[in-house]
Amino acid sequence: MESSRTLSRYDLMCDRVAAQVIAQYSTSFSLATRFLAPRVRTDVRNLYAMVRIADEIVDGTAGADAAQLLDAYETQVLAAPAARFHTDPVLHAWANSARRCDFSAEHVTAFFASMRRDLNQSTYNPAEFDAYVYGSAEVIGLMCVSAFVAEEPVPASTRAELDDGARALGSAFQKVNFLRDLAEDRENLGRTYFPQLGEREIDDAVKAELVADIRADLARARRAIGLIPGSARGAVAAAEALFSELTELIDATPAATLATTRISVPRHRKLYVTAKALRRAHV
Fold first, then answer.
1. Which of 277, 270, 266, 235 has its CA nearest to residue 45?
2. 3-state secondary structure at position 87
3. How far apart are CA 51 and CA 94, in angstroms?
4. pLDDT tens, position by position, 28-70
5. Which residues contact 101 (CB under 8 A, 6 or more apart)?
6. What's the chain's Rg over C-alpha atoms?
7. Buried-most residue among 8, 95, 127, 267 (CB within 10 A)?
């Protein structure tokens, strides 16, 4: 009995560590997760923490050993659900959620394949871009759906619609972040993700094309929000609304400014947009 209580206390500590990861790295996503039901919130935050560690490995934190560290971390992440205890709090939290939500190993592998591209690829053709976005963002959406339905199962037809919406929302999130991080990605990391750019600077015509693509993704995602279990619907609606707001801000920002400045939604506006989305989601 004592060991069970001790392990429960350790589980809680690890969940809190994972929650700090998302709070440190993503204010918009962290805000949206507050509106998830407690169990779902824990699982989504634990998923995000694992993803964030991998992202840090490839974004320069790990230095020259990045490839070896990424390979080792992928091996650890894939094996983690088979063990009940891990000395790494993030890995421990991830493993608990992976078991509870039955996260797909194929999705995890696709994610790490995209992370690996960041170590040796600086530009993308359209097919490579689609593959990168699938692995780096769409599969995260698919794993979030697994968390949403873990205790609220849905029919197969509904799950297919939820998965389609999740992929669209993940794609939109990633493309918005690419546009926000143009200068950081190119100047500090040597990467240009959008095939339309290559070595070119972004101009207003290309920006308009990219914004139209993001809006199409968001519209596709919105069609599935009403199907999401109540424990997660408001949070997803809030996240979609926040990134829609960012998209409109990007649209209103000259391309030349976007190329040098990372834009964000002011905090007071975030709160307003979030509250409005939550009301709409639960009408």
1. 235
2. coil
3. 10
4. 788 889 999 999 999 999 999 999 999 999 987 767 799 999 9
5. 43, 143, 146, 147, 150
6. 19
7. 95
Neighbouring C-beta atoms of residue 112, cutoff 10 Å: 20
* Per-residue pLDDT tens digits for 82-92: 999 999 999 99
Tokens of 51: 């993803």
**Residue 60: left if φ>0, alpha if ψ -120 to 50, beta else—which one?**
left
Euclidean distance between CA atoms 189 and 5, whole angstroms: 45
Q: What is the mean pLDDT of residues 7-34?
A: 91
The angle formed by the CA atoms of residues 25, 164 and 271, to the nearest 5 degrees, is 40
Evaluate the CA torsion angle 147, 148, 152, 153 in order and state its sign. Answer: negative
Nearest C-alpha neighbor of 31 from the set 250, 257, 193, 235: 235
Instruction: Give the whole-angstrom CA distance, residue 238 versus residue 37.
Output: 14
Taking the whole predicted model, whether its pTM rises above 0.90 is answered as yes
Gap between the Cα atoms of 192 and 156, Å rounded:
38
Q: How far apart are CA 14 and CA 36, in angstroms?
A: 19
| Residue whose structure tokens are 């696709």 | 110
Percent of the residues in the chain that have a pLDDT greater than 70, as a whole number: 98
> Where does the pLDDT of residue 174 fall: very low under 50, low under 70, confident under 90, or very high at 90 and above?
very high
Average pLDDT for 226-240: 95
Quick one: tokens of 229?
A: 């279990």
Both tokens of residue 148? Answer: 């949403």
Domain ranges of the chain: 1-103, 121-282
Which tokens hold the place of 56?
């840090």
With helix as H, strand as E and coil as C, how does 138-180 read? HHHHHHHHHHHHCCCCCCHHHHHHHHHHHHHHHHHHHHHHHHH
**CA torsion through residues 272, 215, 142, 87, sign:** negative
